[in-house]
Amino acid sequence: xxxxxxxxxxxxxxxxxxxxxxxxxxxxxxxxxxxxxxxxxxxxxxxxxxxxxxxxxxxxxxxxxxxxxxxxxxxxxxxxxxxxxxxxxxxxxxxxxxxxxxxxxxxxxxxxxxxxxxxxxxxxxxxxxxxxxxxxxxxxxxxxxxxxxxxxxxxxxxxxxxxxxxxxxxxxxxxxxxxxxxxxxxxxxxxxxxxxxxxxxxxxxxxxxxxxxxxxxxxxxxxxxxxxxxxxxxxxxxxxxxxxxxxxxxxxxxxxxxxxxxxxxxxxxxxxxxxxxxxxxxxxxxxxxxxxxx
Length: 294
Fold this sequence. Notes:
single chain; mainly alpha; globular
């Protein structure tokens, strides 16, 4: 099967799978909420879906064609890390899949630690509540800049068209899943979190506490955070304030202000309007950072 046939299959099935995942999680998180909402749902949905629509437009016009062209070139030239050592097809698939996710882990860290990138990524984080609608809420500027990352990612890895297509589906579905406000049974989620980034794990990443915000960067697999020591799971969800302290006023999350925010003078991200820095007054759970708190 050619790369273009795979692309056509992906263009048909991926949106259907992602849409079904979004709808299912939206219903489930209403029935079994993990955290209490702080803002009206309808207003947040309008903002989040508007920002997401612009992101999808840029992705369709710029990111996806570029990634597909790069993928076509690497497959023609057999260029990339996965081609350095001949491997059986299943191992090549798994290796490429893992490298894709590791690359996204590094890209996510870059978006937090490079000030210019953070200006745009912060639009994702200022959402005052965290649910499945936050999953695709990324500023169109961040999405546009990710084009360069995708060229480097796909060309250096050199994975097959099939591995690329499968990873894209899993990547988007799990992005929605770990942003969702779905309360899973804690024992089940502790088990699931051994292999996937889950809602409680990613909820800590959206904390207003700077140290917690700078943890749990994984997208599909949680192993990268464990390996790089950026894991922090021992914060109970009831103790987390979602958002960014410096942009926590109601007007900050209006559509116009959110879209213009990266181009304006930046505030102190971790200091509230009254000058208070958000800190954790209570110590985290006595359990180690690798133990998922309820």
